[in-house]
Amino acid sequence: FVSVYVLGSAGWDAVGHASVWNERNRVVAGQSSEDSTCVFYRNKDSQSVLVCQVTCYIAEDQLFHWTEKVFGCLQQRGLNVTVLSDSSVAEYKTADYFSSSSAPFLRSLRTGASIGPPLCQTLEQPNIMTGLPAAVLSHCQVHHIPTISYHCYSDVIGPNSITVETYKPVLAGLAKSIQLASPNPDVLRKFVKATDIQSNLYI
User: Fold this and answer.
1) Which H helix or E strand runs over 137?
2) What gap in Å lies between CA 97 and CA 85, rounded to an integer?
3) pLDDT tens digit string along 85-101?
4) Does pTM surpass 0.70?
């Protein structure tokens, strides 16, 4: 979503990156080192808006250390954080009948310092957030940083146009900070094609 609707415009500059080394992020022949990094982009029109795009794998024992390192480089005063993440709808737990036609859909969790209502329904128990979104929420809760995490549950593995559209209401609510760009078909096609190559579902 970020690559297609946000960074697709020319209004962003890459200002840094954070490398993460583990067994799944080792740089091998023919692979760019960017595949094992988290890249930071700054908005050219609003210097206070920063996007951290994490496309690499971060091991469970690295999550909290990585989060502390990143937030240690940011000015805490006036900081507001929005997290976008996704997972398979198979991980969503509900006591009611769930129709596959309901996916994809968003759920949210927020820290106590957040002001204003979230833009979608709150994540119901016994569902929990895990991985990097959970590490960011925990860090921001402890340090009283206003943070909302939006999690998309999808029935499709990999990037696709329908799941990408699900995030639009979230960033539409941040219109003062981030302007959504017109979707770049070439960028979206690149992600979808890469996923198709890795999938052997129909072989």
Assistant:
1) helix 131-142
2) 24
3) 888 888 888 877 666 56
4) yes
